[in-house]
Amino acid sequence: MSKRVFLIIAYSRRVIPTRERLNDRFLYIHRLASKLQTVSDIVKSELGDSLSAIGADFYQLRLMMFLASGVESTPTALANQLRVDPAVVTRLLGRLDAKKLIQRSPSSKDRRVIKVQLTANGEEQLTALFHAAGPVLEARFSKLSHNDADQLMQLLSAILED
């Protein structure tokens, strides 16, 4: 091996990751992302099964929880929060409105902006959703201690930071 090739290899091992190390890192991160996706899919599926018994779904739970948080909500803000297409939120709001679980009203500041709030029926439905979802979430996450859950929340928050 020539001195120049040796120096390039030695330099690349210290400063620039080799292709093999890049592949190892990619595979590691891919496995991590796949695990996160699998956990998400399982939780959504289990929640979906539980919530369907009372005529609801995972996105309805998330949307109603966001509305219950008291943050002023518009359809666009809800779509951003749920990370879904605005058309999905429009359809979901239509279903919730038909069930009288939400109220849509124009903003007092800008009548073009529609604010969305839970109705009293919506708050009752959210309580029912909590009762349906609680045991599912408890069963899935009971394997984690309180400290483990806190640490996981911090780690996931770090991943989500922009």
Question: What low-confidence regions span 5 or more consecutive residues with pLDDT below 50?
Answer: none
Shape assignment:
globular
Measured between the Cα atoms of the first and last residue, the distance is: 45 Å
Individual helix count = 7
Structural class: mainly alpha
Number of strands: 2
Q: Largest beta sheet, briefly? A: 2 strands, antiparallel
- This entry's quaternary arrangement is single chain
> Nearest-angstrom radius of gyration?
23 Å
Summed over residues and divided by their number, the pLDDT gives a mean of 88
Please state roughly what percent of the residues sit in beta strands, choosing from under 5%, 5-15%, 15-25%, 25-35%, 35-45% or over 45%.
5-15%
Which characteristics define this entry?
162 residues, 7 helices, two-stranded antiparallel ribbon, globular, 6% strand, mainly alpha, 71% helix
